[in-house]
Amino acid sequence: MTASIHVSDGVADSDLAGFLSDTPGSTPFHSAAWGHAIEQSTGHRWHCLAARDADGALIGVLPLHHIRSRLFGSALVSSGFAVDGGIVVSDPRAIAPLADAAIALARELGLPGIELRGGALPDGWAHDRMSHLGFVRPLAADAEAELAAIPRKHRAEVRKALANPLDFSVGRSVADRAAHYTAYATSVRNLGTPVFPKRLFAAVLDQFGEDADILTVRHDGAVVASVLSLYWNGAVMPYWGGGTQAARGLRANERMYFALMDHARERGCKHFDFGRSKTGSGPAAYKKNWGFEGEPLSYARWAEAGEAVRDTNPTSGKYALMVKTWQRLPLPIANAIGPMIARQLG
Predict the structure, then answer these.
(1) Phi/psi of residue 274, each to 5°?
(2) Of 74, 67, 75, 14, which Cα lies nearest the Cα of 45?
(3) Tell me: the pLDDT tens digits for 181-201?
(4) Can you give the pLDDT at residue 154?
């Protein structure tokens, strides 16, 4: 460990919040709100490694969830159920001590590996800068400018969506949560993946308070698309979204994301963070159609000698049959057993 830098497991929520607000590269997945929400809703314990200098000033953090899974393998993950997390520092001298402390914690817990999603990359770890892209761009000044920022072909799709008889609402109520789960659960079943537990979405909404909400699109009163979004440092992140079978024909997703852009602008947001997608995937192409340029994301893994890195990628060949089977399940069955599987993914 670098001389004069001390790393401990644990930091006061208020100290963490202050550090993250002042440090470039922080994300909602570094926050205590995210850490507590995942622990409360899934049972995966949250550790937050904190690096301090000789004067006791906080100079770096590494939030980690202890993901326990018999199906997919256990690991320390930064951060659990997130697309980012990783090491964030105000002083690069803290990177190595935080990485070393994470390895020590993994060994103490008897875990074979560590996964860092984003953040600073420790020396000596396996690095991946090719598999995923992040999509972020500034919000335009108003709705007309936003339309103009969308490439011509997809702009026509958005205009068609705006002309369709669709209504939308934004909220955090029990009804909003139920509407979101209806759309999201249907969407992920159709993709062949198990749905997360309802309590995960509820915990995130409760922990983030006004910094998270749900936007739902309806047609003739029926839910057709919905997205749960996070707000962080002037950016909106549509994180968990999906639609029913009717969504595509109605272009409900186009209406949903365009309405979210307007809503975020009214909240004072300056950027729209469309999240990550696998390089070369359909979702990546969809985001490019909206005028977003993908930027490579950096990931790092450490594995104990002789241990294999766990595979939780739903597009992996080892899960192909499972995906096809899941897509054919009746929705009530998928919703009943899906959360028991999905909570182990992390």
Answers:
(1) -80, 5
(2) 67
(3) 999 988 877 777 777 889 999
(4) 96
d(CA 143, CA 156): 14
297, 298, 275, 270: which is closest to 287 by C-alpha?
275
Give the burial class of 290: count Cβ atoms within 10 A of its Cβ; 0-12 exposed, 13-18 middle, 19 or more buried: buried
The C-alpha atoms of residue 125 and residue 136 are separated, in whole angstroms, by 27
Same domain, yes or no: 219 and 305: no
Q: 40 pairs with which residues across the strands?
A: none
Alpha-carbon gap, residue 80 to 344, rounded angstroms: 10
Tracing tokens 């639609």 back to the chain, one arrives at 243
Q: CA-to-CA distance for 15 and 33, rounded, in angstroms?
A: 13
Please give the Cα distance from 38 to 263 (Å, whole number): 26
- Closest to 170 measured CA to CA, from 266, 248, 249: 266
> Phi/psi at 215 (nearest 5 deg)?
-110, 125
Residue 271 near residue 146 (C-beta atoms within 8 A): no
Return the closest-CA partner of residue 82 out of 175, 204, 168.
Answer: 204
Assess whether 237 and 209 both reside in one domain.
yes
Is residue 346 domain-resident? no
**Between β-strands 46-52 and 6-9, what pairing exists: parallel, antiparallel or unpaired?**
antiparallel
pTM of the model as a whole: 0.90
On whether residue 255 sits in a domain, the answer given is yes
- Bridge partners (DSSP) of residue 117 are 299
Q: Which domain holds residue 168?
A: 133-295
**Mind listing the pLDDT tens digit for each residue in 215-259?**
999 999 999 999 999 999 999 999 999 999 999 999 999 999 999
**DSSP label of 224:** E
Task: Report the alpha-carbon distance of residue 173 to residue 264 in Å, rounded.
Answer: 19
Q: At what angle do helices 320-327 and 174-191 cross, to 10 degrees?
A: 120
Residues 159 and 138 in one domain: yes
